Design the sequence.
C-alpha cells in the first residue's frame, strides 16, 4: 500500500497540473471590447464570420473607469450598437445605465468576449495572423485569425506631466468618486471636461479644491451646464484657480505652481492630473501599422479602414491618432459596418 501512494505522489508531482489550452482559431479577432470593438464583432458576426474579442480589462473597460454616477453628454440613441435600443429613465444616460446596456447587447449576440487577456503580439500575414495574449495569471493564450481588427481606444494611457513627484502615490490621472478626498487639499490639473467635472464634484463633497490650467481660461468644449457653474465657484472664491499656470513640482505634502506672478507653493494632499490620454502608438507600430508624423494617425483606407498591413483593420478613436476629440462612441460605432462590408467581400462565411 505505501508503494502505491508513493507512486501516486510521484505521478502527481511529475504531471502538469493543467493542460495548455489549444490554439484558438477564428475568422476575425477583435482587440478591444469597448463599444466600437463590440460593434465590429456584431457586424462581422452578422455576415456569418466566427469572431473572438479580446480585452486586457473588463467589458467596456474605459466606461467602467468613468466617474461613478457620471452623466453622458449625448443622448442614448447615439450610443446604440447592433440595432439594439438603449432606453433610459432620463434624457441623458448615466455611466451605470451604459454598462448595463453593453452587457445586455453582448449577451443578446452571444459574443465571444475574452476579458482580462492582454494582447502582446500580432504576427503573421493576411489570412494567417498569430495573436499571443496573456491572462491575469501570466498564462499565455494563442489565437490564429484570418483578419484582425484593432479597436483599443486610448483611455488606458494617460498623458504625463514629466515633472518631479509625478510618481508619488498621491497622484492619479483618473478620477472615480469624491469621498476619499473629503476634508483634503486637492489639486486638479486640466481645463477640459474631466477636470471641470471633478473640481465641482470634489468641492460639493467637502474637498478644498485648487484648479491649475495652462491656458487663460477653461476649454471652450467644456459642457455648457458645467462651465458657468465652475466659473461661478471660482469667482466666489470657493474653488481656487490658477490660469496660464503649470505645476513645477509635486512634494509629499505640497505642490509648486508656476504662475504669471511667479512660483507659488501650496499645501497639498492629493493631485489629480486630468490632462488627457493617448492611444498606444508603440503597439500599433509593433504590428507594422504606419502612423502619420504630425498626428500619429494610422495609415488606412478611409472606406474599409484596412491599414497599410493587409488584413489588419483599425477602428474607433485610434483612427484619429492624437486628435482624440474627433471620434467618440457616437461616430466610432459605425466603423464596424464599414469593416464588415469589406470582410464580406474578402472572406467566405
Sequence:
Amino acid at each position: 500500500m505505501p508503494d502505491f501512494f508513493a507512486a501516486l505522489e510521484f505521478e502527481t508531482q511529475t504531471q502538469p497540473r493543467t493542460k495548455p489550452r489549444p490554439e484558438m482559431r477564428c475568422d476575425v479577432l477583435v482587440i478591444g471590447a469597448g463599444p466600437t470593438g463590440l460593434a465590429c464583432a456584431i457586424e462581422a458576426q452578422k455576415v456569418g464570420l466566427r469572431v473572438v474579442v479580446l480585452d486586457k480589462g473588463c467589458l467596456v473597460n474605459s466606461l467602467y473607469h468613468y466617474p461613478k454616477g457620471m452623466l453622458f453628454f449625448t443622448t442614448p440613441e447615439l450610443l446604440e450598437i447592433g440595432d439594439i435600443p438603449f432606453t433610459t429613465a432620463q434624457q441623458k444616460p448615466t455611466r451605470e445605465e451604459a454598462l448595463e446596456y453593453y452587457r445586455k447587447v453582448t449577451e443578446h449576440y452571444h459574443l465571444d468576449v475574452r476579458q482580462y487577456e492582454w494582447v502582446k503580439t500580432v504576427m503573421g500575414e493576411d489570412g494567417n495572423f498569430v495573436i499571443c495574449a496573456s491572462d491575469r495569471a501570466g498564462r499565455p493564450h494563442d489565437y490564429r485569425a484570418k483578419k484582425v481588427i484593432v479597436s483599443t481606444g486610448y483611455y488606458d494611457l494617460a498623458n504625463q506631466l514629466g515633472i518631479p513627484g509625478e510618481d508619488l502615490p498621491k497622484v492619479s490621472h483618473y478620477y472615480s468618486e469624491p469621498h476619499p478626498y473629503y476634508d483634503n487639499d486637492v489639486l486638479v490639473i486640466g481645463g477640459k471636461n474631466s477636470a471641470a467635472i471633478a473640481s465641482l464634484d470634489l468641492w460639493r463633497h467637502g474637498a478644498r479644491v485648487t484648479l491649475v490650467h495652462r491656458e487663460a481660461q477653461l476649454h471652450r468644449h467644456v459642457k455648457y451646464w458645467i462651465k458657468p457653474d465652475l466659473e461661478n465657484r471660482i469667482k466666489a472664491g470657493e474653488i481656487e484657480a490658477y490660469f496660464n499656470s503649470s505645476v513645477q513640482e509635486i512634494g509629499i505634502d505640497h505642490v509648486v505652481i508656476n504662475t504669471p506672478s511667479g512660483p507659488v507653493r501650496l499645501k497639498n494632499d492629493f493631485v489629480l492630473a486630468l490632462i488627457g490620454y493617448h492611444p498606444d502608438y508603440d503597439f500599433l507600430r509593433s504590428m507594422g501599422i504606419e502612423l502619420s508624423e504630425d498626428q500619429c494617425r494610422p495609415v488606412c483606407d478611409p472606406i474599409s479602414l484596412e491599414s497599410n498591413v493587409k488584413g489588419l483593420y483599425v477602428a474607433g478613436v485610434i483612427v484619429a491618432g492624437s486628435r482624440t476629440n474627433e471620434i467618440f462612441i457616437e461616430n466610432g460605432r459605425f466603423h464596424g459596418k464599414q469593416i464588415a462590408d469589406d470582410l464580406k467581400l474578402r472572406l467566405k462565411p
